[in-house]
Design goal:
By secondary structure, the chain is an alpha+beta fold. 17% of the residues lie in helices and 25% in strands. The strands form 6 sheets. Strands 1, 2, 3, 4, 6, 13, 16 and 21 form an 8-stranded antiparallel β-sheet that branches. Strand 9 and strand 10 form a beta hairpin. 33% of the residues are buried.
């Protein structure tokens, strides 16, 4: 009997305990809420670039003597995509690049290269848009500028907060020697859509180093080398992926000094040095193309647009007309002494060499090194800016960003770097008949009469009512 009572008491106590624990659990659930599910796609920082949209528009320069558009005596009109219009030559071209599963950049658009012309009447407006993994446009993350609060000064005596991204970022536009498809030694080469014997030949003056008139043989420390047939050093040389692979295998070994005879070939080859990326940037690039920075404030808007709300810095800008980007994000007025700043999200390209193809190297430098000479000017201690000896005045009037091709060997930090393929398919500064023939060799359906109106005979009327943006 006592045993049954004991068992019963144990059961009652156990039930009470379970009820108590259940009540405690419900009480704890009410008092302590579980954290929200973690969202893996939250992106913090402009280093999280996931995709790139590169847009190229045919453009023209127009005079603006009264400085109505950009507080400058000129502006550019870039012709925009319009589904209702048909053009004999594309005025709008777009390349999309995305990171694949391995994190490598790949071209995902139908268009894989830009087709452009050499012209003294037309240029090109290049716009670059960067997106994070959520497909959110993040260009503005590179254009932040803050002043130090409470009248404080930075170490150089300036008002700039060192956390201002505008002070340390700038696009540079050069020539690369590789493609996104992994092809090496893609130095500037000829382009011909009609004669295969003249296509993909290395353009010697843009490729090989010389000592006087002589080619420079490869060494163990030379980073880029190309095979040239012995005895044919000055003959046109066609690109070869197989030979480029073989040259890469010999890099930094004694094999760079050896003569190489491919199986089944009657020619023997020796390795010679090419320009490195810095030589290309400073010496070669200006001969191939030029670039003018045309960034706006806000950076994601277009020149001449009327703003309706706050900008990305929280400033009330309703009714304000978008102008060019200035030092310290200064909202410019006529007569203001603040100079133009440079980021490279919008700019103007001119091409100087026709019938060629090359990989334009595009990179965002994160310029974190100090510039001692800048510190003496009390404003910009960072390497993005330098003293311009040709500028008149003092202080900010004497400061300027680096030019589009002026990459410093000391820089080691880039937020992104990638090549974009360009083909300069025709020369509008030369013979008209040859120009028309070259265009039609690439765009077979192009109407010859429309091409003449577009580029030569009736240009002003042809573009008078076409959709356009201001750069």
């Amino acid at each position: 009997m006592n045993k049954r009572i004991t068992i019963l008491l144990h059961a009652i106590l156990l039930t009470a305990l379970l009820l108590t624990l259940g009540s405690c659990q419900r009480l704890m659930e009410q008092l302590v809420k579980s954290p929200e599910p973690y969202i893996e796609n939250i992106v913090e920082g402009h280093e999280q670039i996931y995709s790139i949209q590169a847009i190229l528009r045919l453009a023209q320069r127009f005079d603006d003597p009264d400085n109505d558009i950009s507080f400058e005596p000129y502006y550019y009109r870039a012709y925009d995509l319009d589904d209702s219009e048909e053009y004999p030559y594309p005025i709008y071209q777009e390349i999309e690049i995305r990171k694949n599963d391995e994190g490598s950049l790949t071209i995902t658009s139908e268009r894989e290269h830009f087709d452009v012309i050499k012209s003294d009447k037309f240029c090109y407006a290049l716009e670059l848009k960067y997106y994070d993994i959520n497909n959110k446009l993040i260009n503005h993350q590179f254009s932040r500028w803050y002043n130090l609060k409470g009248g404080k000064q930075n170490d150089a005596g300036g008002l700039d907060d060192p956390n201002s991204t505008l002070l340390v970022h700038q696009h540079f536009f050069t020539v690369d020697n590789y493609s996104l498809y992994g092809l090496p030694n893609l130095f500037p080469m000829t382009f011909s859509a009609t004669d295969s014997s003249q296509d993909s030949l290395y353009i010697n003056k843009f490729t090989f180093k010389r000592l006087g008139t002589q080619l420079v043989p490869a060494t163990r420390t030379s980073t880029n080398n190309i095979f040239i047939p012995v005895g044919k050093e000055e003959a046109p040389l066609r690109y070869s992926y197989t030979m480029s692979e073989e040259a890469a295998k010999r890099y930094a070994t004694n094999m760079v000094f050896e003569t190489y005879t491919p199986k089944g070939s009657s020619d023997s080859y020796k390795l010679y040095q090419t320009f490195d990326s810095y030589d290309m940037s400073w010496k070669i690039v200006p001969q191939i193309f030029s670039y003018e920075y045309r960034d706006t404030d806000p950076v994601e808007e277009y020149l001449g647009t009327e703003l309706e709300d706050q900008d990305d810095l929280g400033r009330i800008r309703t009714g304000h007309i978008v102008g060019l980007l200035r030092f310290q994000r200064k909202i410019n007025d006529a007569g203001d002494l603040y100079q133009k700043d440079a980021l490279g999200f919008k700019g103007i390209l001119n091409f100087h060499e026709a019938h060629m193809q090359f990989q334009m190297g595009i990179r965002i430098a994160h310029i974190i090194n100090d510039n001692e000479s800048n510190k003496k000017n009390y404003r910009f201690p960072f390497g993005k800016y330098h003293l311009d000896p040709t500028a008149e005045g003092s202080g900010l009037q004497t400061m300027a960003p680096n030019k589009y091709n002026e990459i410093d060997r000391e820089w080691s930090s880039y937020d992104i770097s990638f090549p974009l393929p360009f083909r300069v398919i025709a020369d509008a500064t030369g013979d008209q008949e040859t120009f028309i023939k070259d265009i039609k060799s690439v765009f077979q359906d192009a109407d010859e009469h429309q091409l003449r109106r577009m580029f030569f005979d009736d240009t002003a009327r042809y573009f008078s009512r076409k959709a356009s943006l201001i750069f």
